[in-house]
Design a protein that fits this description.
mainly beta, rod-shaped, 10 strands, 8% helix, 4-stranded mixed sheet
């Protein structure tokens, strides 16, 4: 590990990455999911869950890298989809390198990005999955419920 980037990535993954992956020699994708001022980027090879409030829309992007973490290209536009359109709506940009992720309901779904890594006539499929948990958004109103704790209710003062 003579490259400072590789050293940084090694320690970053060992400390912060929740998965227990080993960096293998195959094409991978970096996925970035951003909602407002918060964004996360990871090379998903393990269990990673993004939380998205149901009142926010997220911008997602994908970038492909080779086994050494260097930028790589794919053949054609990647195809984006949601494992559950009742939870997440995913709309890709024209070039397929980004998408808008919009919550539809509370629950968990996967965003799937599929691309062809073979730059020739063949097809080598690279599938990138990102788990997204849609949570309730920020509270904007409240309600108070009163319940009688023993005894008989007493009538309040009538109209005057």
């Amino acid at each position: 590990m003579n490259d400072p980037y590789d050293l940084f990535r090694h320690f970053f993954c060992r400390i912060f990455c929740p998965c227990t992956h080993k960096h293998s020699h195959r094409l991978r994708a970096k996925v970035t999911l951003a909602a407002g001022s918060i964004s996360m980027t990871c090379i998903p090879e393990g269990a990673i869950m993004f939380s998205l409030p149901d009142d926010k829309t997220a911008a997602a992007s994908v970038a492909y890298v080779d086994a050494k973490g260097k930028a790589a290209t794919v053949d054609g536009a990647p195809v984006w989809s949601s494992s559950d359109p009742a939870i997440l709506d995913v709309v890709a940009s024209a070039d397929g390198m980004s998408a808008t992720v919009t919550p539809v309901d509370i629950g968990t779904a996967q965003v799937k990005v599929e691309a062809d890594a073979d730059l020739g006539a063949g097809v080598v499929s690279v599938v990138t999955l990102v788990d997204v948990e849609v949570l309730a958004g920020q509270a904007v109103a409240g309600s108070v419920t009163l319940s009688l704790s023993g005894g008989t209710p007493s009538p309040g003062p009538g109209p005057t």
